[in-house]
């Protein structure tokens, strides 16, 4: 499978996901947006991975590629591509799907527990334990888009992620850390 990932800053890479992808013989390409790399065309990938970064979804004056990125996410969703958003990537997915993205009442920076929903309503939630620890580094969060399903919460951040069907997964926390 052809996987294309979007990198917002040099220090937010694929982490442990890179080895997982390569061990399954997926090919990887990357747009390093901080170097003004171009966005891929929708035909260039089957799976889009949108990583994190310190900017916010409305920081388009400082980061003009954010608008193009949101359009690429919308196109990937419309074309039923697989898509994974991590932290900022999840916020961009929520924004692209019409949900609100806003300042979280408290920043989450460290390892914190995440509780998965009691009702196991989809394939993503079914594989999650009732509670697990995840690394967080964010000040913003998001609402759950219409017709998406929540996949986790905790005391600090109500929405830790969502899924849309079996192709789209958005995670507020960082699963890429080893």
UniProtKB/TrEMBL annotation:
InterPro entries: ChyE-like, Class_I_gatase-like, GATASE
Residue ranges annotated for the Glutamine amidotransferase domain, each copy included: 42-177
One cellular component term from this protein's GO annotations in UniProt: cytosol
Pfam families according to UniProt: GATase (PF00117)
Record-linked PANTHER family: GLUTAMINE AMIDOTRANSFERASE YLR126C-RELATED (PTHR42695)
Protein name, as recorded: Glutamine amidotransferase domain-containing protein
